[in-house]
Amino acid sequence: MSLLLLCSATVEPLNSDFMAREFSMQFGGMAFTKGELLVFQFTDPEKGKSFTLSLVVKSIDGIDLNSAASGDEKARPFP
């Protein structure tokens, strides 16, 4: 899934590893649609600052889990 940041950009670098973990915790198990708007809030522990981001789902990839689990080499992500 690709996401587009809509709010004004910060000049500070953000910890993308922490953002990915936090996103998974907040949105794990949810289904999204292309064009869906999300609001994502996280606190960067290194900076002690809180950020609220508006995100739009740009694209979604999928995979056949049964094929992947069986080791089928044709099991690759599809749009």
From TrEMBL:
Protein name: Cell division protein 48, domain 2
InterPro entries, alphabetized: CDC48_domain_2-like_sf (IPR029067)
Organism, scientific name: Ancylostoma duodenale
GO molecular function, one term: ATP binding
Entry keyword set: ATP-binding, Cell cycle, Cell division, Nucleotide-binding
GO biological process: cell division
